[in-house]
Amino acid sequence: MGKYPQGLDVAVDYNFYDAVFQRKSRRFGLGMEIDRGPLKYKSRHKPVSLSEVEEAILVWTGLGIKGINLSDFPPHVGLDLEMQFTSKTIPALGDVHRTELFYTNDEGTYMIKMHDKRPDDFKGLEGLSRDKRIDKIVELFRESKVKIHDGRADLPSKPPGIAAHNLWNVNKPGTSVFMPVTDLSACIINLLFFYMRPDHRFNFVDELHGMRPPGTKGWLEKGFLDESKRMPLIEAELRFANGYIAEQAFMGQNMVLSLQTLGLGGWLFSGFASMFMLGGTPFNRGLGFRFITPEIKGDTGNPNPVAVGKDDMFHAFCPPYYKDMGEAVEALNDLKWTNWESHKMPYKDP
């Protein structure tokens, strides 16, 4: 790969098992300093930022689009969970693909916008030679990269917005901070439909209000749901949320393995409080997300602001982006079944 640095050949040829077993968190970068204690040390070098090719490879191995899914379900049961047929480098429950990556470095703060993109062909990245694959990754990276603003994101620099042990080396000159954000609204709406399909007919109940139906009494009376298949709503939502938030961990693991192959330092951590990182406090602008405070009815509810989206870039299926949840659900269904109308589907050309 003559037009790329020689080290990229080493990265591409790196043994998978070596990457897994040699992977370590490498926290001390060029230009960094530990200013006290038995490990006190100051780097003699200036910070060095990632190159564009390094950023592109990290991002695209993290959660990039690579082709079309197999989607090898029995068509009569299970296939309708699929929101789309895009194959990415991480598994995604129901292929909703509502985890997006934001990142910041010395030059600016960016979103890698992929939720509105679909694969061009069936072979995808796996069908390309190594040179053309890197070319395509860089091309897709450039197409998907949206600049939010110049300079580093205004992220927390002290507790409670960030854990104290991360203060010395996070968001410092020369570093890149990658932050995945998952829209749980689309994910949960899609799963609620799936759990209420004829083969399931789960009866969700509200454990905060005497196990009553949460607005589904009419469906029970008409026999659309099975009263004996009770599922507590909070338990269900936690189960659903965990399934989708796992995408962030998959992405992180892909990226740290790529760090190892590229000979770069870095580490996987969750030291930021999400409300601060997304911009839900007056202390830091964060990523500049819009927040709303839910209306509290009775003696239960969440009085804290909730992130609902980044205007004109990435938002949840809920108000204020829709007039009510009915309109939001219709919008999600329209999006899903429009995806099914594509000619690029695995069952049409397996």
Structural write-up:
This protein has 350 residues and is an alpha+beta fold. The protein has a single domain (7-339), classed as NADH Oxidase (3-Layer(aba) Sandwich), CATH 3.40.109.10. The chain contains 9 helices and 13 strands. It has helices spanning 7-13, 16-22, 52-63, 130-144, 184-195, 217-221, 233-262, 274-278, 325-339; strands spanning 33-34, 41-42, 65-68, 86-88, 99-104, 108-112, 145-150, 177-182, 203-205, 230-232, 290-292, 306-310, 314-315. The strands form 5 sheets. The chain has a 4-stranded antiparallel sheet with strand order 7-6-5-8. Strands 11-12-13 form a 3-stranded antiparallel sheet, with no helix packed on it. It is globular and about 75 Å long. The mean pLDDT is 92.
User: What CATH architecture label applies?
Assistant: 3-Layer(aba) Sandwich
SS-based class: alpha+beta
CATH superfamily: NADH Oxidase
- How many distinct helices? 9
- Overall outline: globular
Strand content: 5-15%
Main pleated sheet:
4 strands, antiparallel
The count of strands amounts to 13
Strands ordered across the widest β-sheet: 7-6-5-8
Whole-Å distance between the termini?
33 Å
Instruction: Provide the CATH topology.
Output: NADH Oxidase
Which ranges are low-confidence, i.e. pLDDT below 50, for 5 or more consecutive residues? none
Q: Output the CATH class name.
A: Alpha Beta
Mean pLDDT, all residues: 92
Helix coverage percent of residues?
A: 25-40%
Q: Which terms summarize this structure?
A:
350 residues; alpha+beta; three-stranded antiparallel beta sheet; 31% helix
